[in-house]
Design goal:
Length: 247
């Protein structure tokens, strides 16, 4: 179902929500949580949220993912942890959930929730995302408006994946008007693939960080600046390097 951003902006789905009366949008459409027919398959990692796929790749902990006003945005920034060894590698991708997106975050694969951390904003208030979103909705992404990635409150949900035998971090970055992300799961709780994980309000961003290991690799299936759908789109195909498990 993943489609180019330009196609989504011209779609009936987008127009119906964008043109809805303010009362209907604010009281109903914004909070929608549609039922979805999801196929569970350990060979793939599912899209964890609806939204625009901004960037993806394999990076060292201190390597630039994108540049924001001359400052590099790294795994250390995402996880707010300067102690991560520079040479440690991660698969990383970022999704922007627009004001018109479904705001339910789902798990990419089955596993166990190991830890949940809530980090306060660096400044007294969260930095607004409206400038970044307005440019995206013009199909003109400008990463210089992504200052919120460094400054805003975030919730970090760490999951262990027995399929990949590694840890996955879901980083929910809040918008200016949000002071809490609603979680549907708790620590030490087992989760299935594409299970509802959290709910985030207004425009928001989800960064996902996966610890890279020698025994697997991921092949991307969706290009950047495509609009994706949580649980419905396969983002990555999993390949194992060792014969103990082959798909």
């Amino acid at each position: 179902m993943a489609i180019p951003l330009e196609t989504w902006l011209k779609s009936e789905e987008f127009k119906e929500i964008a043109d809805a009366p303010l009362k209907e949008f604010s009281e109903y459409l914004f909070f929608r949580n549609p039922l979805r027919n999801i196929t569970v398959d350990d060979r793939f990692l599912k899209a964890p949220s609806d939204g625009i796929l901004l960037y993806q790749g394999k990076y060292q902990a201190n390597q630039k993912i994108v540049e924001v006003k001359g400052k590099k945005y790294t795994v250390r920034d995402i996880l707010d942890d300067d102690t991560i060894p520079k040479e440690k590698k991660f698969y990383v991708f970022g999704i922007y959930l627009t004001s018109f997106s479904v705001h339910v975050v789902r798990t990419m694969t089955k596993g166990v929730i190991l830890e949940i951390r809530n980090l306060l904003p660096i400044l007294s208030n969260n930095f607004p995302m409206v400038l970044f979103e307005s440019e995206l909705l013009r199909n003109n992404p400008n990463f210089n408006f992504m200052q919120f990635s460094f400054l805003n409150q975030r919730t970090i949900v760490m999951q262990y994946s027995p399929v990949l035998r590694t840890r996955i971090y879901y980083v929910l970055i809040a918008d200016a008007e949000v002071d809490k992300n609603l979680l549907f799961v708790g620590e030490d709780e087992a989760v299935s693939q594409a299970q509802r994980l959290a709910y985030v309000l207004f425009g928001s961003q989800l960064d996902v960080v996966i610890e890279a290991q020698d025994w697997f690799r991921l092949r991307k299936l969706v290009p950047n600046f495509y609009y994706i759908y949580a649980g419905l789109d396969d983002l990555y195909r999993v390949y194992f390097r060792y014969p103990y498990k082959v798909y």
